[in-house]
Amino acid sequence: MSDALQREFVSPYHALQAQARARPDRLFLSAPASAELPYAPDGFAHRYGEALANIETLRAAYAAAGYGHGACVALLLENRPEFFWHWLALNALGVSILPINPDLRADDLAYQFSIAEPDLAVALPGTHALIKASGMARVIAPADAPPACRARITRQVAERDDPCALLFTSGTTAKPKCCVLSNDYFLRIAGWYVSQPGEAAMGEHETVLTPLPMFHMNALGCTVVGMILRGGTVVPLDRFHARRWWRTVRDSGATVIHYLGVMPAILLQLEPEREEATHSVRFGFGAGVDPRHHETFERRFGFPLIEAWAMTETGAGAVTSTAGGPRHIGKRCIGRAVAMDYRIVDDAGVDVKRHEAGELLVRQTSDDPRRGFFSKYLKDEAATAEAWAGGWFHTGDVVYEGEDRSLFFVDRKKNIVRRSGENIAVIEVEGVLMNLDAVASVAVAPVADEIRGEEVFALIVPRETPGDAQSLAEAIARACAERLAYHKVPGHIAFVDAIPVTATQKLQRGAIKALAAQAVGAAGTIDLRAFKARLRQREKAL
Questions:
Q1: More exposed terminus of the chain, fewer Cβ within 10 Å: N or C?
Q2: How many CA atoms lie within 13 A of 294 on its CB side?
Q3: Mind listing the pLDDT tens digit for each residue in 39-75?
């Protein structure tokens, strides 16, 4: 899909409408029975013409209820087909959506709702109690008629720069920030995605399988809108299931898969099976593959892993991939910059020399350096201005440039844990821990994890010396699980006498990170990863 063609559309809805009229019988959404989706045990298949009919029915209902530009609707529909029908129906009217992570707790939701101020939540019936516990009274099931809109509406037609989706992303503050992402943002990132060169060049009949959630830019923008632009097929799984992965990939006919770094690590641990050699995958697209696994994975499973870099904030305004260029396998290469300006600077903001590591600053190469980026952090002008200080977007990612101008990822400056693709603000976890009676002081840091990429590590000064450290650690983790999403609960806890602080009592983040790294697996450190998994299993069983 050329850049010129993606500019013809006003919104993702209009792109789908055009594809449905031109190719009504082409498959839009599908999943095989081998995916074992709890809501579709026999799988499903929805063609573009059928999809448009479903969307138009909902669009008319929302329009009759008064929804339009100026309104926001929260969606907790996982990766089910209903999500796409509601999203695109609302998108047609200029309504923004707030896709909800089903792992969030009531407090998390209450915070997000306070920022996004959705007029309505459309959610699976089993989640209505959670939604209402967050303070949101207006919640309906996906098949229910929408109540009258209460927001101030200016029109019922979409425009290119309208907010399309509000996605929350972690930063260095105590609470996640809300990124406002426009129709233009999604069409541009999708256009970039389907125009990759080399091994990742896309044909007219691609089938892209993703286990990533629709509350992430990758799945919503690249995969779904990308396939809408191309007229391809999306296979939206509920999550990554290692044991049935290759059966699902084969049976879906996937030509492209999306991955996070955690997935190759897990798949390489499995015994060889017939399905892993009988698939149709041409390439994988993702980020964060462990350098030790990259070459081994490609050799065993028979296709390249195209590593890419972007952030929710940067979208297509600043994005890289290793497609069509030197991939430097096993070296954390994220590709070369195309149509973006960048600098690599030290802590003083001075450009570093080639091969030296520094923070990546980016902007678009155009008259509008912010085109393709997020519109703003909702209700946080100060954070938006800080992120764009000096006319450059400050990524917080540390990289270096090689001789051939390839960029190589080193680390993150931000105080976050990147666990299985989820950004976790350490200050958010620390805030919950500090409110527990057993905790006198605490510091949280990321530590390396073979499977998840990173895991949450908590250094805790207890109010009383624990008689049974294991029991206390489990009690703390259990209390965290009542207040935090599962992935944010500490996977390791070490009880210590003191936390490293500066003379002004600020946490010494560098020293804390080093201590946590040394403490993993050491005597006295409690490994809670298996306990954390059991908590998750019990939660799912309820």
A1: C
A2: 20
A3: 999 999 999 999 999 999 999 999 999 999 999 999 9
